Amino acid sequence: MGQVVRVIERPSSRPGIVRFETNRVLTGMGHERYQSRADAVDDTPSDELARRLFDRGGVQSLHINSNIITVTLATADSSGIREIIEDLYTYWQPGMEPPTDEELVALVEE
């Protein structure tokens, strides 16, 4: 369950830089720049994506403007980045179990 993000990976003319274009706006009309995971301090889609990409490793810096994600790679390998972006809005992952009715009722009664 969740919204699948469509992603197109586009190479850059500069080595070590990869651009990803999505069908979802991540920053509104603004832009965000991340030099490290520590820069992603808020609870926004762009900050969550930055945390996930830095956790993957191999990312030197990241710039997100609307629906364009520009990744400066620390290594030459961009494998797996597209999939991380595609899963950004996917809540239910394989192996997750939805709560039972009893668990939901207990949450409401608290």
Question: What would your notes on this structure say?
Answer:
This protein is an alpha+beta fold. It has one domain: 2-Layer Sandwich (Ribosomal Protein S8, Chain: A, domain 1). Helices cover 25% and strands 25% of the residues. It has three helices and five strands. The chain has a five-stranded antiparallel beta sheet with strand order 1-2-5-4-3. Strand 4 and strand 5 form a beta hairpin. The longest helix is centred in the middle third of the chain and has 12 residues. It is elongated. The protein starts with 6 loop residues before the first strand and ends with a helix.
The total count of helices amounts to 3
**CATH architectural designation:** 2-Layer Sandwich
CATH classification class = Alpha Beta
> Any idea of the CATH topology?
Ribosomal Protein S8, Chain: A, domain 1
Using only C-alpha atoms, the radius of gyration works out to: 16 Å
Structural class: alpha+beta
Number of domains: 1
Shape: elongated
Q: Residue-averaged pLDDT, rounded?
A: 90
Main β-sheet, in a few words?
Answer: 5 strands, antiparallel
For the biggest β-sheet, the strand order reads 1-2-5-4-3
- Helix percentage: 10-25%
Distance between the termini: 26 Å
SSE order, one letter for each helix or strand:
EEEHEEHH
